[in-house]
Amino acid sequence: MKFRISIVLSLLVINFSSVSAQVATKSKTYNFDPKKTEELRVRDGLPNLFQKLKAGKEVKIGYIGGSITNGGLWREKSLEWFKSEFPTAKISQINAAIGGTGPEYGACRINNHLLVHNPDMVFIEYRVNNGGAYQGRALEGLIPQIWKNNPNTEICIVYTISEGMIEDIKKGNQTNAGVFMEPVANHYGITSIEFGLEVVKLLNENKLVFKKGDSPADGKIIFTHDGTHPVDAGHDIYRNVLVRSLKSIENFGTPGPNVIPAPLKDNAFSSASMVPVTSAKFSGGWQTADVGDEVDINADLTDKNGGDKTLFDKAMKTTTVGDSFTLNWDGFLLGLTTILESKGAIQVEVTTDGGPSKIVSLNSRNGGTQTKYEFFDEIKAGSHTTTIKLVKLAPGKVFQIGQFLVVNK
Q1: How far apart are CA 66 and CA 75, in angstroms?
Q2: Which of UniProt's keywords are assigned here (predicted)?
């Protein structure tokens, strides 16, 4: 939460109807209804960002989220606007979004993939990719990590839309994932911007077809081809909502460092990290896996974040049932990057601290082969030793693992 000198309310001009009435006085908490959605909830605003932009300084804008941001044009279009609106500033981007990933993975990798570049601004886009993971604790974990790295970094949560969210947003309701994200924004004073309301407004006005083929499209905006990923015109809508929101708050707030409040929830992911695969002790049958050309895991992920190199960095593989590895770790939740297959194709036995073992099937999200990540069950925080043994492997498949995902208090 930022504790800043209040400004005169009359200096704040917000001139479109979807913006909530807000006061400039800094408060320790915000009480916006998490079950409802509005186009803009300013909260503490983004004064550090605009101060640097107007002063013509170097500004690094970071993006973290899923495929809508990774390959999505709203990111590029927003960057173009920043450069045209503030031509004297030296603006660059850090694209740390990875398709098909959520905030639970984002919290583990944000230091390696984004914060190493010391961004001045971070846009977080995770609602479509399960922003409510672990009841918002995963998303919450991002915020303290950003401010521990640099307390002057500003943060904005942006809400993109997929087909299954339309009915909720039509009623002015937040989505199933968003209801866990908005309490985080309230607690930490984070500005949030809802892209979906404008999309639904155009849909209601019969000016937009959400998914190509849903209805005749003559003279209408085609928003997506698949119900999730906007085409160019859809990203224009996202950009336009972002721009009018940012322009309305560019004079809001007083610059200064952000102060991290006590956690909103126990076991937030604020001490999540990635641990190299080489930290484990492997049985004899494992081999080093080829994950493509060498890439620095700390490199800017722009144009590098869609494949095995980023998710694995380095990896180990085996095709021998009975092979195992053991990892000593500290925390309450363990995961790893891995190759997921169809249900039952890869099964492992997980044993921690000599307790009862559990069989886990490494099932993909779409029924095919996916390079993703898997988290195991939460346990009591502390020092642990976990052994994972391969107990079933379908013909022609491989058990491959990369970085460990460790979440500590």
Answers
A1: 12
A2: Signal
Secondary structure class of 150 (helix, strand, coil): coil
Distance, CA of 108 to CA of 134 (rounded, Å):
14
* CA distances in angstroms from 20 to 31, 160, 190, 193, listed in the order given: 12, 19, 14, 11
Decide: 404 and 274 in contact? Cβ < 8 Å: yes
The pLDDT tens digits of the residues spanning 186-218 come to: 999 999 999 999 999 999 999 999 999 888 888
Tell me how crowded residue 231 is: count the other CB atoms within 10 A of its CB.
Answer: 15
Q: Give Cα separations from 333 to 137, 220, 312, 317, 339 (angstroms).
A: 12, 47, 19, 23, 19
Closest CA to 188 of 271, 259, 104, 266: 259
- Candidates 154, 233, 240, 226; CA nearest to 197 is 240
Give the chain's end-to-end CA distance (angstroms, integer): 20
71: Cβ contacts below 8 Å, ≥ 6 apart: 99, 229, 306
Q: Which amino acid is at 81?
A: W
The pTM of the full predicted model, rounded to 2 decimals, is 0.91
Phi, psi of 239 (to 5 degrees): -60, -45
Alpha-carbon span 53 to 397, nearest angstrom: 51
Instruction: Give me the DSSP letters along 207-231.
Output: -EEEETTSS--TTSEEEESSSSSB-
Share of the chain above pLDDT 70, in %: 89
Tokens of 85: 């609106």
- Say which DSSP state 360 is in: E
Measured between alpha carbons, how far is 358 from 338 in angstroms, rounded to an integer? 18
Asked if 226 and 212 touch (Cβ cutoff 8 Å), the reply is no
Which domains does the chain carry? 9-249 (3.40.50.1110), 276-408 (2.60.120.260)
What six digits make up the tokens of 241? 């909502």
CA–CA separation, 187 vs 44, rounded Å?
Answer: 11
